Amino acid sequence: MNRSLRAQAIDFAAHMRRRWYLYLPVFAIWAFAYTRLFIDPTPRVPVLFNWTGSLPYRVAWLQHGEHPLQRGEFVIFSFAGEARTAYPGLDGQPFFKVVRGLPGDVVTVSGRTVSVNGVVVGTAKAQAFDRRPLEPIAPTVIPPGHYYVQGTGPDSFDSRYRSSGLVRAEQVLGTVVPLF
């Protein structure tokens, strides 16, 4: 015999009250994840976790503060590329990448191969994970206040792509020291 849905809900609520200590961490993690994804994705603690394959590091230390960025430096920035229209969840999300191009550097594209100052930095894939086409970045001279950033993995979504583009200095949240 099936009990009513109301009776089951009352029993479950009583169970949760008795074992609140088990549910509290779960709800706290969900609340943190919801806030991070939908309200404010800005990192608030200096320890960062990289869940993607864009860089070989999984844990890093964030150093806030402005200073001129150097080639090879790891940065975290707030995403503001064109891809936000197709993927609204990317808007403002923190991305962890390496600075490969500085203001004044020349970005060239041959086919899908992207170079900065004549040095090949990567190949742009033809399509995203969901089969949407990806266009490589247009050849350009990096303007003042902008940076070319890139991950080390072949699937990294970075400045190789027009829909990601160059990163403005005001998007940079800080530099990052990879821990492991």
CATH class of the largest domain: Mainly Beta
Percent range of helical residues = 10-25%
Secondary-structure element pattern, one letter each: HHEEEEEEEEEEE
CATH H-tier superfamily of the largest domain: Umud Fragment, subunit A
Radius of gyration: 21 Å
Strand content is: 25-35%
Count of the domains: 2
GO cellular component, one term: periplasmic space
Protein name: Conjugative transfer signal peptidase TraF
Organism: Rubrivivax albus
Transmembrane segments: 20-39
Describe the protein.
It comes from Rubrivivax albus. The chain crosses the membrane at residues 20-39. With 180 residues, this protein is α+β, with helices and mostly antiparallel strands. The protein has two domains: 1-40; 47-178, Ribbon (Umud Fragment, subunit A). Helix content is 19%, strand content 28%. The chain contains two helices and eleven strands. The chain has helices at 5-18, 20-39, and strands spanning 47-49, 59-63, 74-78, 94-101, 106-110, 113-116, 119-123, 140-141, 146-150, 167-168, 172-178. Strands 1-2-11-3-4-9-10 form a seven-stranded antiparallel beta sheet, with no helix packed on it. A hairpin with a 2-residue loop joins β6 and β7 (119-123). α1 packs across α2 (20-39). The longest helix has 20 residues, at 20-39.
